[in-house]
Amino acid sequence: MGAEPLLKLTDVKSCYGNIQALHGISLEVYPNEVVCLIGSNGAGKTTTLMNIMGVVRPTCGEIVFAGKRLNGLATPRIVSMGISCVPEGRRIFPALTVEENLQMGAYTQRGATSEIEETMSWVYELFPILKERRTQMGGTLSGGQQQMLAVGRGLMARPRIMLLDEPSLGLAPLLVEQVLGAVTRIKQEGVTVLLVEQNALAALEISERGYVLENGNVVLTDKASALIDNETVRKSYLGQE
Amino acid sequence: MGIRSLSMKDKTLIGIILVLAALYPLITNSYMKFVLMTGIVNALLVVGLHFIFGLTGQLHMAMAAFWGVGSYAFALAVTRLSWPYWLGVFAAIVAVGLLGLLLGFPTLRLKGFYLAITTIGFGEIVRLILLNWAPVTGGVFGVAGLPRPTIGPLQFGKNQPFYYLLLAILALLTLAARMIEHSKYGAAFRAVHDDELAAEAVGLDPTRLKILAFVLCGVYAGIGGAMYASLMQYISPEVYTLERSQMLAMMLVIGGMGSLPGAIMGSVLLTFLPEVLRFLQQWYLAVYGAIVIVIIVYRPTGLWGIWVRATEWIATLLKRRGDTRGAA
Predict the structure, then answer these.
(1) Full pLDDT tens readout for chain A, 241 residues
(2) What number is the ipTM of this complex?
(3) Contact present, B236 and B141 (Cβ < 8 Å)
(4) What secondary structure does DSSP assign to B79-96, as a single string?
(5) I need a surface site. Which of A218, B41, B197, B223 has the fewest CB within 10 A?
């Protein structure tokens, strides 16, 4: 593991109106790691990602990415620094074609058109189905294909780290395997991944390390393999005795 | 690029411009010729509205204010300040572009009906200023004696040459709109329409995009407003009402939201519809309303949708005839 974390959250607190959602989250993600956040509904997993992306502003604490403070920066700026997000529920643009969806992912890229095209052919290589469907409207794709498109759109920003929010949500077991398989491939391409999942076992199986969140706090952190064997985790999140 | 490689939308746009060009000499009634000219000016405005309402999905109900400020900026520049014609048009573009910026900023956090209500209020404020700031705007008397354009030795004072100039401007501005639509900004406008939160999450800036769409709309409305003033040669505040804003929005909806050919079809046809229905006298508004409701309920994709269906139907019909002939 590298000495310097790529992404580091220190005591991040965050509120929605009067309701405090995060009570001081601290976590680290090192280069070329897959790290997962697990926890039940309302534990603060998505809120953590929203704070990193600058969609929700932390009330306190510090978020540092590659040595730079992210607090208070606007989302487009954060995306252009090398963080991209695949939001929960995919949120692709249904009335845009597959290719236009991908182009939107590269919106913050200042590079030349040829560079963007290069990235696009890389994404098409990772997900050949998207190339097949490139002129089709995003909304006409199946759930699994839409998830691939959402991941592809995230990759178009050439991120150093990718935040994935519940990529397996609402997908059939076979597709869950496909989508999480894609995460492993992304890691092989040199992209660091921070994964949020309710499907804790599947997430831990492809991760190096994991954080367990409960009511806006980190209650446990360890190597993924150790978490799978941890008794509390087994009982609470894996549904095993 | 050959004609075959053009999309259906581009072909239809070229077709519409050609039909409009051929239509003018075919109309014998000089009043109807004038209605057609008004239709072209409306199309300029509706193509502008297409950016903010059609593509970006923001319900902008102050189109009459944009149009009115365009008309007045042009009229005051060429009469009070004695500016040359095209400098007056430029003043109109800048004035309404700035107005778009002005309306864009405070309304960015508003969506849907809230935005619509705010823009309605904005439109009323502008109308009242045009009406009551008499020392500048001329109040109820409006501004008279507005010129028709000249370009070098070319004179556009008569209706026929002016009509073809208007059509050329429409063709040019439609081409520009089509190019913007095809650029990454066009797709970004539609992305904001589709899912604003997702757009923000992938790094688009919905705020800036909406302001940009408002300003583009303003630029088109500035040209449309100036051309309207030049067409009428006299302007007064009572035309720039909420009713006209609704009418312009309706032209876009009836034409088919989010499609440029639809925007132009809707503008021209809805400009003509009241004239065609005039023989119904007091019943005309009821029939007019009924036609609009039928289109919205049964063909939500509007005239553009109807056109697409019709061409598909004709294509299969031709193909079938070709097949049977081949079999015989």
Answers:
(1) 556 899 999 999 998 888 888 898 999 999 999 999 998 888 889 999 999 999 888 998 999 999 999 998 988 889 889 999 898 888 899 999 999 999 999 988 777 788 889 999 999 998 899 999 999 999 999 888 999 999 999 999 889 999 999 988 888 888 888 888 888 888 988 999 999 988 888 889 999 999 999 888 898 898 988 888 888 888 777 776 5
(2) 0.81
(3) yes
(4) HTS---HHHHHHHHHHHH
(5) B197
What is the distance between the alpha carbons of residues B229 and B235, in angstroms, rounded to a whole number? Answer: 6
Q: Which residues on neighbouring strands pair with residue A164, listed in sequence order?
A: A86, A195
For an interface test with B, give the residue of A93, A100, A116, A163 to mutate (most B CBs within 10 A): A93
Placement of tokens 């691939």 in the chain: A148
Domain extents in chain B: 9-241
Q: Using the Cα atoms of residue A140, residue A143, residue A146 and residue A150 in order, give the sign of their dihedral.
A: positive
Q: List the alpha helices (DSSP H) in B80-183.
A: 85-107, 112-132, 134-137, 159-182
Chain B's closest residue to A100, CA to CA, is B187
SS3 assignment, position B202: coil
Residue with tokens 């014609």: B85
Which chain A positions have a beta carbon within 8 Å of B202's beta carbon? 79, 84-85, 104-105, 107, 153-154, 157
Residues in chain A whose beta carbon is closer than 8 A to a beta carbon of chain B? 53, 55, 74-76, 78-80, 84-85, 87, 91-96, 100, 103-105, 107-108, 153-154, 157
- Choose among A34, A9, A63, A79: nearest CA to A192: A34
Supply φ then ψ for residue A212, to 5 degrees.
-105, 125
The three-state secondary structure class of A54 is: coil
